[in-house]
Protein: DUF5367 domain-containing protein
Amino acid sequence: MKYTRAALFGVFLWAFIFVIYSILMFAPGIKNQVFFQYLILWVLLVPTVLFLAKWYFHMDEPTTKKGFLLGIMALVIGLILDSIITVPFFVKSYSVYFSNSYLYIGLLEVLLLTTYAGYEFDSTYTKDTDK
Structure:
């Protein structure tokens, strides 16, 4: 596993989520509808995570295990950045932030997508070319 690249993956993903959610919080029509804000974020996570995973696996051979570990690393980096930036400056309450069930759905989605990316890119990477 390329740790520096995986850390950058986590930082890029966190920055994307931070920017998109910040925009959605003030978007007319949905600024008071938290579920729809998260729903849009969850939909946008699919291409973003797969794109970033493709970037990561460009320099590291993809496997399901590496995809899972990439997801764990991204989640740890994201939660650390949330703990030192998002919560103290914007939410003001760790208990409110970490008791949000929508957060955990997003975390699970990221982990599943990175694991899937490792699996899918592995089958593409190791495609049998003898046929």
Remarks:
- The chain has one domain: 3-125.
